[in-house]
Structure formats: C-alpha cells, structure tokens
Please model this.
Amino acid sequence: MAKSERRSGRMGEGLRRELAVGAGASRKIWVYYRLMTEMALCRAVDSYLVYLTEFLSLIFRASPESLRSGEEVRLDFVLAHSSRAGLIKAIIDRKIN
Model:
C-alpha cells in the first residue's frame, strides 16, 4: 500500500483481508493512524493552552499593576469581593478566560 493511501485512510483489498484474518498489531495501527495523530495533536494543543493560561496567571499575580487599562469595572463586581486579593484574582481570571 502506498504512503498516500495510508495517509488518506483508504485501505487496499489485501489489507482488508489481512485485518479480517488477523494481521499483526503494527498493520492494524495504520488503519487508525490518522485518528491517533489527530488525537495526539489535540492533546498537545490543549496542554499548551493550559500552560499559557497558568503562566499568564502567574505573571499577573506577581505584578498586578500590569492589569491596568482603561476598561471600566462595574461597582457591583468590585463590591462582591471582600478583599483586595480576591478582587485581583477575579480580575485576572476574567482577563485570562
């Protein structure tokens, strides 16, 4: 079977027969190659996004003055927090997410 056929997910008749009869595990993996590659890529992207979120959160907690902007914050949002630290954490979470 050509590489282009494996990449596109098409199987030849010979491979279908081998899979039905019971070929080796390495041949069976090629049937699911595209799906496994996609799953691995999605997992890597998700892990990277979590890393970036945690990293930005750490930066903003270390220096909250970097959060300054012209954005207005509603008074009820500010009054909903009992401490300055809680307010800063909520603003950081709102900015990042």
Q: What stands out?
A: The chain has a mean pLDDT of 83. The helical segments are 3-8, 13-21, 25-31, 33-62, 75-79, 84-96.
